[in-house]
Amino acid sequence: MTNSDQFDTRFNRLLTAIERIDQQIERISQQLEELRQRTDSNARAIEALTDTVNEFKRDRARLYSVMANLANSQSNLAESQSRMYGLMENLDERQEQLSNRQGEIVEIMKLLTKSQAG
Q: Under 8 Å CB-to-CB from 1, ≥6 apart: which residues?
């Protein structure tokens, strides 16, 4: 084998190695692009999850507010019921007093009727 043949062989090997390196660089570039796309996708997913978590926090705060309003309304209802029962008790007492007075008026009317007749 002559120097020229050896040079050609080495040169061909070098070209083959460069082609392989070029192919590997291309594969790495493709992998990097895929990785970038996944990273972008993950970033969007994280952003969406963060938005969802924030929305859950706002919903939870609204729920606590509604629960506080409900508890306040229940308290107001209980207070109103208490006043109503007190009024009903007073009404019963007044009704009894009126019944007693009606009885007294009936007795007075009877006496007046007797005194006018007699």
A: 9
